[in-house]
Amino acid sequence: MSNRKAEWGEDGADSSTGPSATTQTAGSNVNGRTGPQKQVEKVVLQFLKTKGYREAEKALRADAKLSGQESTLGDLSQTFPGSEMGSDASVPNWILFYNEAEEGNPDAYNQSYGALRRWIDSSLDVYKHELYAASYPVFVHAYLDLLMRGLGGKAAEFMTRYGGDHVVYHGRAIAALKTLTARAHVEENALSRLYRGNKYGIRMTRVGFELLLSFLQDHHYTLLMRTVNQHLNIRTVDGGAAISSEADADVGITGHTQSQLDHFNSQDIALGPAPLDSFVRDEVERTLQGEAGRFVKDATAKEAAALLDTFAQARQENAAAALSADDAVPMPPARGVEVAQHIADLKALRKRVALGPAALPSVCMYTLHNTGNALTCAAVAEDLSLLAGGFSESYVKIWSLKNEPLRGFAGSINAAAIGSEEDAESAREKTGEPWRKLVGHSGGVCGVDISFDSKYLLSCSEDKTARLWSLDTYTNVVCYKGHSYPVWDVAFAPQGFYFATASHDRTARLWSCDHIHALRIFAGHLADVNCVRFHPNSKYVITGSSDKSVRLWDVQRGSCVRVFTSHTGSVDTVAVSPDGRIMASAGEDQTINVWDLGSGRRMDTLTGHTGPVYSLAFSQEGTLLLSGSADETVRSWDIKRSSSASDHPIIAQRRADQQEPAPAAADPDAMDVDGAEPAAATSPKQQPQPAGADPKKRDAAGIWKAKRTTESEALLKTWRTKSTPVYSIMTTKRNLAVAIGAFTL
């Protein structure tokens, strides 16, 4: 949503490295020859002289810059003392043996393939997908060749070192190849015969293909060059369009599944809610029973009794679907604040408005003025008490939405002297403004998040750190260091205590508030990790990246369990439904993809936005999806009504559980966000286009020209702002939608 990333580059690689830089450096050694290679050239020269090919002899001598006496077979035999060739061997046989001797080097594949992978890792992101796809068949044939030469130990070492790089897209094939340990296995196994008897199809751009060949030639990796020539069928793609994913580049063998992403995404995951803490359960029940008994004939007693019924129903639903104690993420002992929050959630549940096509959410829009395009991120507390914004000037600013003064402590205090709320209140400043600045970062602030109890705030910055701030004292509590590049996003876990960060160093990291070092490092993305969110049960972390993919990570194992690839641009935001079964992702390609986390398959693609999508949020029932975009709109989507998703089992079940009333007519007096002209509440296709509308739309980065897009049938309504890109959107426990943006001229 800002220009901060442009200064570092959209890709995760340093602009000074990559294929072009590597090729240029290696090119200076093209004419360098080892001793054995020079000997072979002289033997060939002798062969041409013997046969009388004088023109060819002259050309070779000039091209190879050979001078002096030609080598004899005896000279070459001394170069290869381990030769088994007889004394009557011909020159062509000696040349053939020379190639076989090079190929028989036990460490040749480890060295050359390892160098290839390191080169791809440092290459430009625009070519990484196709280069990684091309490296897979090279890996397979290198492994099979080692087995065919009887080098089973080296083959096992090769598989252990590099096999994990291809598990996501070729998990089943890697598992099958690991079972091969001898030459006889390669000759008998159906999969190995399939690979050795057919060429593997790869789609590459012309530039990517030329870079690959240049790298192999410049470094004299003849083994890999032979594999590319004999076993790969590379089809170059004309035009400047880059290949957006490894799956797009991986064509595979005809009749054989080239991408095994569906198999990778079929591994079991636990999506149920986190189990209710026994202390919270007992304390909530005791508190509500006490209120019901204390006020026998009071309205408070009736409300407490109703809350007890709601709590009993929620407990029953939670117990039926909750994670087991072994699967749940370990949490610290619950405190009184969790009890109070749970009671507040029960009250909100009773007052929640059920949303649907005929009952769209109300949208509260907070517009920040006079930001000078310096606002980079924003967040609102769940109880709507505070609003926080991060700025490129290296500070965080918070506002009280209740217009109450935010009073910190007057100077330094002795914590031991504060034993009660009265002591803390007396130590605070006597007056204050309804806003405060939190200063501590040394670079632009890229992401902020507020804890569920509104007691703490997290911020991340270009200075490579994340900071924890107390919203009681308005001071920095902890500075977390670990990333080696700017940190783009930060997010609290739903239950607090844990949080996650996303960085330009292509990793996401898991932290706990009481440790200054990361607990887990999630590595696997090929470019910047732009956004990070927790699953509602805190067992999984979801990341979106500039490599156009979304990944689901297991917090306890630290491994990737789902990969979602279909975006054509950078993924800038993700959201998970409250029941934890559906995920939505969006970004630069202006589309929203809706995913079933259980199967890993895409349920639908929602189109309608004409600018990058900055934020997503589900309604509390998970039936509606809200999105905020650079096109200065908030949009509501009914994922139940989408034609392509209507037959999905999750959507069918939700339709059966909820009977929708007849759609209401559009309210002619309704006003959209920021007082703009109302949009129709019926089908989006009936929305009129204002005559003479300005085709230019603005975002925080400047002015760009909007393109007309086909609006999905699932689009319910569009709320248009006057000139405010929507940076963040959320829904409260009562299904009120809250959006934040900065007014732009």
Q: What does it look like?
A:
The protein has 20 helices and 32 strands. By secondary structure, it is α+β, with helices and mostly antiparallel strands. Helix 16 (278-294) packs across helix 18. Helix content is 31%, strand content 24%. A hairpin with a 3-residue loop joins strand 18 and strand 19 (549-554). The radius of gyration is 32 Å and the shape is elongated. Mean pLDDT is 78; it is low at 10-32, 80-89, 94-98, 254-259 and 658-706. The chain has a four-stranded antiparallel beta sheet with strand order 5-6-7-8, with no helix packed on it. It has a four-stranded antiparallel beta sheet with strand order 9-10-11-12, with no helix packed on it. A four-stranded antiparallel beta sheet has the order 13-14-15-16, with no helix packed on it.
